[in-house]
Design a protein that fits this description.
Serine Threonine Protein Phosphatase 5, Tetratricopeptide repeat; Tetratricopeptide repeat protein; repeat
Length: 451
């Protein structure tokens, strides 16, 4: 990505038209020769350069300079041959002599630029490229590259914005800008620039989007929302405008309109996933108070089925779990396990607890027994399997699984006490009153010690 317009004509063959692609100025090699002797020597140098006999080319060019001491073209050619031999100081001296004779020819300055870049003299490269920009402003892209190399990000950002405004955005500049803005201290300058760009052209959507992204990244949600409102006003058809409209509709309890905006947001490939998650969360809170829109919530969740960052269904299950709405929680835990891993440890723990809260003992028992095979040392699964078997009156199965699982209880007095209580229940179901009392007493002792 660096040096996109850098001078690259050092090794072209005889009478090449290498300069004409870029320059409007007269090409040095096309200038008429003053004398036959000069002309013969000059063309001989071009011939020798073309076959990479740079030393011989230099000898011919030195003859030219003796004949015409103030000929900038000869010095320029001399610099190119020294450059090819990697004699960089000699090359720079020759190019500088050319610029002294004819300071208005950008190709002579580009010779010095090539030397400074090749020798990593970036300070000189910056100085020279600034002179070249006077002739051709598009060379500012090279200046941006140099600023990036030398970590002058503030100057690079200013130049990037200037070039974007004058020539339109480029992929290289956008990559550089993203690199700069990843460092928070430069974001304020970019925010100011975007605000100014919006004032200049209120119909350019990308400036709103970039500003919303920066505010969102900094968790400045109110500012992000205000920009979205402004976008909705200026460009009502924008997908990003729906972010603002959704929030406004929801606050006004206009559910149908809010749902329509939400679906546009969630389906958009342009809108940041963080904003999508926030939109879904706001709708979830709304549905908790207005359960008649649960079907719309189901549809909204489906947009996140392939989300690799967040298990949305599980998070919604946790939301309902925290509200004590265990049947809703179960629905979303089961959805998550079906869509992702059926043996996810955390989700299964939460699901078993939710099953127990609503006394769904049959599915709880089946799932716990399945999980014991996957996690044979996870004590909680034995406990839920034992509790479930007791509740469905499979006391022998309960006794067996609880006795197995008790060995895996470590430093958890409450769980150990619960195991003993369920063992007491199992023995009670089996008609062994003595064992029942023994386990109940043991559970009581454990709980006393805990206190």
């Amino acid at each position: 990505m660096i040096r996109k317009r850098v001078f690259t004509v050092l090794f072209f063959a005889l009478f090449s038209t290498s300069f004409s692609v870029f320059a409007q100025q007269t090409e040095p090699e096309d200038i008429a020769m003053a004398t036959d002797e000069y002309q013969d020597s000059f063309y001989e140098s071009l011939k020798q350069k073309g076959i990479e006999n740079y030393d011989k080319a230099i000898v011919s060019l030195e003859k030219c300079i003796k004949l015409k001491p103030n000929d900038a073209v000869a010095y320029f050619e001399l610099g190119k041959n020294y450059f090819a031999l990697k004699q960089y100081q000699n090359a720079q001296d020759a190019f500088e002599k050319a610029t002294q004779i004819d300071p208005k020819n950008k190709w002579f300055w580009l010779g010095i630029y090539d030397v400074s870049y090749e020798t990593k003299n970036y300070a000189l490269a910056i100085e020279i490229i600034q002179k070249i920009i006077v002739f051709d402003e598009e060379y500012k892209d090279d200046l941006i590259s140099l600023y990036m190399i030398t970590n002058q990000y503030d100057k690079a950002l200013i130049a990037i914005n200037e070039m974007n405004e004058k020539f339109g955005k480029s992929s290289d500049r956008e990559i550089y800008k993203a690199q700069i803005l990843s460092q928070g201290k430069y974001q304020n300058a970019e925010i100011d620039n975007l605000i100014e760009q919006i004032k200049k052209d209120p119909k350019e959507e990308s400036n709103y989007v970039n500003l919303i992204f920066l505010y969102s990244k900094n968790n400045e949600n109110e500012k992000s929302l205000n920009v979205a409102k402004q976008l909705a006003k200026e460009i009502p058809t924008s997908e990003w405008a729906q972010v603002s409209l959704f929030k406004g509709y929801l606050d006004a309890n206009q559910a149908d309109k809010a749902i329509k905006s939400m679906n546009v947001i969630l389906a958009s490939s342009k809108i940041d996933s963080k904003i999508k998650h926030r939109t879904l969360n706001e709708f979830l809170i709304y549905v908790n108070k207005n359960p008649q829109y649960s079907a719309d919530l189901e549809k909204a969740i489906s947009y996140f089925d392939n989300d690799k960052d967040v298990d949305v269904a599980k998070e919604i299950g946790k939301f309902y779990h925290s509200k004590g709405q265990f049947e809703n929680a179960i629905k979303y835990y089961e959805k998550d396990l079906k869509a992702h891993s059926d043996t996810d440890l955390e989700t299964n723990m939460l699901l078993l607890e939710a099953y127990s809260q609503v006394k769904q003992y049959d599915p709880m028992t089946k799932r716990a027994m399945m999980l014991i095979e996957v996690y044979p040392s996870q004590a909680q699964f034995y406990y839920y399997a034992g509790l479930g078997n007791n509740q469905i009156k499979q006391f022998k199965n309960a006794k067996t699984v609880l006795e197995m699982g008790l060995d895996y209880v470590v430093d958890d007095a409450k769980l150990e006490a619960n195991f003993n209580i369920q063992l007491g229940e199992a023995y009670n179901g089996l008609g062994d009153a003595r064992k029942k009392e023994e386990y109940f007493l043991k559970a009581n002792e454990i709980l006393k010690k805990k206190k």
